[in-house]
Amino acid sequence: xxxxxxxxxxxxxxxxxxxxxxxxxxxxxxxxxxxxxxxxxxxxxxxxxxxxxxxxxxxxxxxxxxxxxxxxxxxxxxxxxxxxxxxxxxxxxxxxxxxxxxxxxxxxxxxxxxxxxxxxxxxxxxxxxxxxxxxxxxxxxxxxxxxxxxxxxxxxxxxxxxxxxxxxxxxxxxxxxxxxxxxxxxxxxxxxxxxxxxxxxxxxxxxxxxxxxxxxxxxxxxxxxxxxxxxxxxxxxxxxxxxxxxxxxxxxxxxxxxxxxxxxxxxxxxxxxxxxxxxxxxxxxxxxxxxxxxxxxxxxxxxxxxxxxxxxxxxxxxxxxxxxxxxxxxxxxxxxxxxxxxxxxxxxxxxxxxxxxxxxxxxxxxxxxxxxxxxxxxxxxxxxxxxxxxxxxxxxxxxxxxxxxxxxxxxxxxxxxxxxxxxxxxxxxxxxxxxxxxxxxxxxxxxxxxxxxxxxxxxxxxxxxxxxxxxxxxxxxxxxxxxxxxxxxxxxxxxxxxxxxxxxxxxxxxxxxxxxxxxxxxxxxxxxxxxxxxxxxxxxxxxxxxxxxxxxxxxxxxxxxxxxxxxxxx
Length: 570
Fold this sequence. Notes:
The protein is 49% helix and 18% strand. By secondary structure, it is of the alpha+beta class. Helix 4 packs antiparallel against helix 5 and helix 8 (414-436) packs antiparallel against helix 9. It is elongated.
């Protein structure tokens, strides 16, 4: 019965509204109202001249005939509202006497979309204005639970967008929030791969065929340990921004982690246990074939095992620079340990290895380290061809100097070899200064000073030849310390705001340590044989123990980053 009364009332009021004159002008909005779902909106409706309340009737209706609200007999009539608008639509009561009949509509739904009529009636005339509501919605949903993945696996991070906004007006970005890195970007109707950082390039991507359906999920290939954490899918329109989060966690040790641990432990155990019989052979000055076999195994096997372990770990971490430098450094240490050995393997090979070890290792490590460091520059489309050519020429010159030092190493005095390697290190500083420095003039001045010190060092070495071998070494050590300090000052100026500054400093410190080992030689007449043999044994043992130290350090890092980091990041 109530519904029948409502329909009769709506029909009756509509019939009244059909009678109108031109004297009453009702004003509404010129354009449709664009409203977000769930928001509130004011539907404008007014007249220029206030109307006495005793003769005023204001009727808000839908184009379907539903009654939205009614003002009659000097008051609003909420009891007459259609149930769909009960409690959601109301007049600004204090404004009605001023000719303002606007309606406040709360919690807009999709059913509110369409035309609304504001009908104003007096005893003599009637008029109306139309108000159209167009609803806008933007809803983004992500994953309810974290995504668990082993290193090396592929994962999908969900992001679903529900909106009527055209794709060309959407901007969708995936961010790694704890590092504030933009992983993916969709803008102006297309995917923007040029915005990706190097570490995610080729690994993170949208499902292109799913984008028209509102699916902006991200596929992350070959998950690294450093990928662990919170990712956020942010969706922007001209009016609002909505986001959803996803989490990547590691469930513990993968096969790669276990392999790295096994190799690390094996290298440490092997180095410790075989060191005992080797030291006995050295003490007894045993140069039999069995002793030489023990020497070779002791030097090579632990270094090879820890080198493979570092290569695996660098791959898991996604750090090719770490994988290359650490693995090569441990592998090339075989040559350095042979150089420091207190025994002399048979044949002329040992002499060649001793002289070639340092320049060859420096060449291999510098070539790989700089190639990885410059790779983003060569692949960056924003870098000019001229800068790329300049970088390539500088790297080529640097490697040419190191190659020259390696080639002539067999017939070169140790002090001259130290000078050549220091020139190569300074050439590396010049490359970094020109390519990366924001204070290039000051940095180049300091590099020039360093080159001047090198020539002064060479001159002083010649003058000190008559003073004895020991004094030359002490002088060379002090001068090397001064050279290292100045190099670190140049690096601090050149890479002032670069997060890679500590890495570069460690790299240069390692190059200087390599340079200092050139001066170690066998059978030096200026030394007592016993003291010299003891020194060589100590250096030799320390070199072999480095495998144990590296193994413990690597195993600890694996446990910290893989085994003990299974926590809730949300």
